[in-house]
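Example record

The entry below shows one chain as it appears in the dataset: sequence first, then structure tokens.
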Amino acid sequence: MDINSNSINNRSFVFHGTETGLDFADYLIGVASTYEQGDASGFYIRNKYAGLYAQDSWRVRPNLTLNYGVRWDMLPPWSEKYNQLQTFVLGEQSAVYPGAQEGIVFPGDKGVVSSLTPTKWTNYSPRVGAAWSPNFNDHWLERMFGAPGQKQRPRWIRDVLHGI
């Protein structure tokens, strides 16, 4: 996914209610939960995605089926086309931009990848499900919802529909 920035956000405040417990109250007293300010240049963020999924079903009984599977996702962190991202590493001086303040490092500096963090390759998600079809020989569903071909609803449904 490629996103070309055509809007530049130079300032952003977020109020979550961390000070007073109410977001609007924090806004009224001027206590922001987060404040973000950037330079006035556009960002061109990039991302890739890959995923696999496998599943199978096992009919345990004629009225019970188990479904199981696993999903794997590879979703690397976002990167920027021109390496305009930066991060903070205490005590480190940038070799890419030597004039930057100490601690501010950029992609290309020692140990800093283009997405600022490495990709996690172990995103596995198990999936489990069951489908059960009740036995109609017990007649409990007929008592609850009515028998096939029955023209009148059971009493409890009539009471609910008529507001009793």
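Notes for this example: Strands lie at 2-4, 12-14, 34-36, 44-46, 50-61, 64-74, 79-80, 87-88, 104-105, 123-132. The chain has three domains: 1-42, 47-133, 137-164.
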